Amino acid sequence: MALAHLLPKADAVVTDPPYGETSLDWDVWPDGWPDVAALVAPQVWCFGSMRMFLDKGHQFRAWKLAQDVVWEKHNGSNNANDRFRRLHELALHFYRGEWGALHKEPQFTNDATARTVRRKAQPQHWGDIGPSSYASEDGGPKLMGSVIYARSCHGYAVNETQKPEDIVAPLLQYSVPPGGLVVDCFAGSGTTGAVARKTGRRAILIEKREAQCRAIVNRLSQGDLLAANVRANAPGADGRLARAPDDRQPRARGQGGRPWRVAC
Ligand SMILES: C[S@@+](CC[C@H](N)C(=O)[O-])C[C@H]1O[C@@H](n2cnc3c(N)ncnc32)[C@H](O)[C@@H]1O
Predict the structure, then answer these.
(1) 113 CA from centroid of ligand 1 (Å)
(2) Total Cβ atoms within 10 A of residue 236
(3) Does 173 contact ligand 1 (Cβ within 6 A)?
(4) Ligand 1 geometric centre to CA of 16 (Å)
(5) DSSP letter string, the chain
(6) How many whole angstroms from 82 Cα to the centroid of ligand 1?
(7) Best mutation site among 208, 213, 217 for ligand 1, i.e. most ligand atoms within 8 A of its Cβ?
(8) In this structure, how many other beta carbons lie within 10 angstroms of the beta carbon of residue 239?
(9) The domain 4-107+145-250: what is its CATH number?
(10) How many angstroms separate the Cα of 98 from the Cα of each of 42, 58, 63, 168, 244?
(11) Which of 47, 86, 144, 185 has the fewest CB atoms below 10 angstroms from its CB?
(12) Region 229-243: what's the mean pLDDT?
């Protein structure tokens, strides 16, 4: 992070820091990193838990909160039998400067039901939120919901807290234009880099553990073969979210149960 001032300006930081909640030796929150991220990009997506954000939230003082997304997992990660089984994590979106000046590409799923929606009055607690009515048609595009289901990486993870590509992809595509640059300062196994490449973005990945750096190199060096194979069969070969063939794939919650995944 000390070298962050040497980095080129990026469109966004998309990162998954150490939450500081386990006994893993690397799981230590590096104080001050959100200030460093503010030198690099005008927006940041940061994974974390509610406990982490309550504890470290003051370190985001350089940032304004834009929105929060919930990653709904298919299985939990804690074993405490006296609490609710924890099946989710958060990703908070922060920005600096003018909201209107940011690159934003709302994400959609193609599972709308036909209707015309009219807003009666502009809610006072929002600024300009766009047109006051819109029509949708069956199977047409619908704004992706903020609760996004994606299967955890159990069985193939090479990082202890690896994020699935399907939860990183909508965040990255929202904030980074095609050809744009994303920085991940806690890269782990390189999920952000893998998603960037599959969706036509560029990425700078920073990771302190050498074994994880090797895992990233291995993962990305295999990417071309995997991507070429999947691309041949993918319906959405433009790097956007594509319809998945079965219901075991991730989907935005409450959107007709239709599954979505990253097209490679
Ligand atoms: C939560 S994991 C990221 C997992 C990643 N999202 C993935 O899908 O594989 C956080 C990573 O940050 C790394 N890390 C911890 N402290 C760091 C630091 N000061 N600088 C760079 N990386 C660090 C850890 O080694 C760990 O791999």
Answers:
(1) 41
(2) 15
(3) no
(4) 7
(5) -TTGGGSPP-SEEEE----S-S--TT----TTHHHHHHHH-SEEEEEE-HHHHHHHGGGGTTSEEEEEEEEE-SS-----TTS----EEEEEEEE-S-GGGS-----EES---SEEEE-SS--TT-S----SEEEE-TT--EEPPSEEE----TTT-SSTTPPPHHHHHHHHHHHS-TT-EEEESS-TTTHHHHHHHHTT-EEEE--S-HHHHHHHHHHHHTHHHHHHHHHTT-S-TTSSEEE-SSTTS-EETTSTT--EEE--
(6) 29
(7) 208
(8) 20
(9) 3.40.50.150
(10) 9, 21, 11, 24, 36
(11) 86
(12) 42
Cβ(249) – ligand 1 distance below 6 Å: no
pLDDT in tens, 103-157: 999 999 988 888 876 766 666 666 566 666 767 788 789 999 999 999 999 889 9
At 201, the amino acid letter reads: R
Residue nearest ligand 1's atom 17 by CA: 208
The per-residue pLDDT for range 28-73, each reduced to its tens digit, is: 999 999 999 999 999 999 999 999 999 999 999 999 999 999 999 9
What's the CA gap between 157 and 165, in Å, rounded?
A: 11
- Inter-CA distances, 185 with 34, 125, 236, Å: 10, 33, 29
The structure's pTM equals 0.83
Tokens (6 digits) for 17: 């820091």
